[in-house]
Each structure stands twice: as structure tokens, then as C-alpha cells.
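Model it.
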Amino acid sequence: MIKPDSLASKAHSVCGAQCGRVQHAAIAKAGLYQQVKDFFSGIFDTSNWPARWHCGTWSEFHGWLYIFSDLLIAVSYFAIPLLLIILLTKRKDVPFPKILWLFVVFIVLCGITHLIDAGIFWWPAYRLSALLRLFTGIVSVTTVYTLYRVMPTVLSLRSVNELQKEINERKIAEEKLAASEFLLLEAGRMGKFGGWEMDLITNKITWSETIFDIHELPYDYDPTFYDFSRFYSEPYLTTMTQALNECRDTGTGYDLEVQLITAKNNRVWVRARGEMLYDEHSQPAKLRGVFMDIDKYKLNELSLNKTVEMVTKNNQQLKNFTHILSHNIRNHASNISLVSSLIDESTLDEENAELFQKVKKISEGLNTTLEDLSYAIKIKDEIIEAERLSFKEITGKILGIIGSDVAANLAVITQQFEVEEVTFPKIYLESILMNLLNNAIKYRKPTVEPRVLLKTYRDENGNTVLECTDNGIGIDLKLHEKKIFGLYKTFHDRKDSHGVGLFLTKTQIDSQGGQITVKSKPNSGSTFKITFNEKN
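Modeled.
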């Protein structure tokens, strides 16, 4: 270790001999070019300066404090660039990498200047130190200028709080997206439908998990190599192939119901949909669609169609049988009537004449019954066009027909038509009103003048309703509710009751999709409510 006293004495002698000889006159006479030449040619020449220990008065503490500080700064200056270099090589997405590299060079040069500054205590390389400081200054200015250029961009970057807020918002959005995706997958799994997509550029096909399940394929199966002939038999193979090719070539979408053969050779009905997806330049980019397992519903549909077909066939056979039977019976009834008309009743004795009258009444009744049945069958078979009708006009026409009966019984017919018109077949509406008004007068109370209220309105569903309310003898619905609209069903002991009017009324209303109901009590009158179906 150098002693302070020896350092002081030596410093005084050397500094007097060398540091004092600055040679101002010689330097002043030399030109700038010569000075620069001498500087760089003697860059490592230290003969003109003593080591720093020998220049001035240094105590041991002061000298080593200076040296230690420079070395400590130099080590730190070398460590910082090392960490920056590791950061730059490990993370390729570090912002502003060029500025960081400038900082690396700048800090390294600063560390070297401090290292040389410490070494000058033994090796007086002042020229080299000056050159390194020049390089450090140039790099420093360049760094400052570059940092100044990017400062607006740096200031525009989001703060840590803003980034944290965005991260939190993204986490919430991701959680919601994950929840929605889970619900979508569950809906697809429970509903047995999934989505698929084909990239028209790469021909890569992507399936959702449900489509793998429908095909009974493992999830690692690559649908890009999907073979239609493996999973479809004719005619569905041709149908699917043509639909997909047409969608790819012309952009025409498709929606098909076909039968699929799964990887386990099970046959399943599926619904396949596909459509074209275009890019921002309106060029075909992808095919996208949905695949759904409809086996349960399709089998039910096929079974229902088969049942409907069978019922239709049986119904047609029944109609044919009904027409044949009606025709044959009417022929026999007509023959009976014809034969009856040929008999001369004056030649019959009293007993046979009485029997003949009974046969004649039976024949007339049979013909009437057959006519009623024929009319009912005609209503079921024929489709009669509906038209816009006025309740007031049709009611007026009916009252004109039964006017004498209304007057004879002192009947009062009240009309309250809130809804003035209805769409319905004219012949049916006339028949319905005729039957309702005739029944209201026919089944009146013997000692009370008949009162009938006809009114129309709209129900809560917007349908037109016609009600006919009377004050007649009423009907015991507890006894007759299930058969009130049956053919030849009567509920009173009247000789002129045939049980045909209400049957025909209901038949006519049912043929148009309407509905008829009744409310009645014995001796409290009846209310018939007709709900029209004008949506047919």
C-alpha cells in the first residue's frame, strides 16, 4: 500500500517536474491538424502525464474512495446492459428495442469511462479517456434525440392502471365468453346439433364436438378427409354431393333431410344445412353450416305419415261404401214409394188400408232419413267457398221465410250485431240461423211469448262470435250434453222433433273450422254460442 507521506513528497517533485511543464508555447505554435495528428498517433502514449497517484496530494482514503466508487459505478454500468441484452433476446415483443440497444451502448461506454478513470491512478491514458468520453457524448446525444422523437408515442401508451383495468375487463369478457360457449355447447349437445366450416382456400374442415358424436367418430378424426360415400347410401349420397358442389360453385345454400350411416353402421336421420360465406372483397371464402340429429322426429313423422295415409285410404273406402250403400238403399226406398203410389187404396178393406198407411209413412220417413244423410255426407265431402256476409241481411232473409211462424207465436227477435260481417259460406249461415230460430220458437214455453236475442261480438282471441239466446223450455245438459249434436237425438216429447237440425248445424260449423257450444237449463232457456274461424 502506498504511504501518504511518500505520496505527498513524490507528488510534489514529479508534479513540479512534469505537471508544471505544460509547454504552453510549443502547443500554441502547433496547428490544429498537428494537434489532432499528435493526439491520435500517441493515443496510448502516457509519457506526458504521471499516474493520478502522483499528481496532486492524495491521501490513501481519498484515492481508494475515488477508485472504489469508479469501479462500483463501472460494474453497475456493465450489469445493467447485460440485463437489457437478456431482456431483448428473451422477449421479442419488447417495445422500442432500438432505443434499448442505444441505452446498452451508452451505459457500456459510461462504464468504460469510469473503469479507465479508476485505472488512471496507475496508467495515465488521458488521451484514450478523452476519446472514449467523446464517443460516450455522441451516443448520449443520439440517445437523447431518439428518445425525444419517440416521446409522444411513449406518452400515448396506456398507463399501468389503464392496462390493469383493460386486463380486468378482458378477464370479465373472457369469463362471459366462456360461459356463453359452455351454454352453446350444452345446447348443441342436448339438442343434438353442431356447426361445421370449410375453408375454400385450404380445404380444411372444422367440426364442433356434437357432429363427431352424431357420426359416432372419435374427436381426433380429421374431417378434412371426410368421405361422403362412407357415410351416405343412395339416393342421399347423390343428394348431398350435388348440394355441396352447387353451394361451392354457385353459392346456393341448401337445407336437406337425409339418412346418415354412422361409423358404427347405425342409420340416423339428420338435417344438413349449408351456405356460402364471402370475404371483404365479395369473394367466396368459406362454406358454413349446421348438422342436426332429427332421427326421433323423422321417425315419428314417417310413422304419422303412414298412419295418415292409412286413415285417408280407409276414409276413402268408407266414403265409397257410404255412397254405394246410400245409393242402393235410396233405390230400394224409391221402389217402395213407387210401388206404394201404384196401389189403389179404395180397393183395400179397412184393416189393410190402415196397414198400408203405416207402410206409406215408413216409406216417407225412410226417404227423409236418406235425404238427411245424403246432405250430411255432401257437407263433409264438398268444399264450399266462403264469402263476406252481413249478419243483418242474412237474418232479414231468414225472418222473411219464417215470418208467418214468428207472427203466429208472437215471437220477438232482437238483433245486436256489434260485428256486422263474417267470412262464411252463405248457404251454411242461412241454414244455421234457420235451425236456431226455428228451434227457439218450436221449443218455447206454452204460456210465455218467445223472446230470442241474436248478437255478435269478438272474443279475447279476436274471433267473431254469434250467440242465440232464447227463453224456451231449455235442455237438461246433465242428461243430454254428450249427445246434443248427435244425429236423430231429441230431448223433448214432440212429434215434430227429428234431431237433424243441430247435427247439421254442427257439421256445417266444423267443416269451416269453427266451434259451437251450448249453455242451458230446464225451463231457463238456451244459449248457443258459435265461434267462427275466419283464418282458413
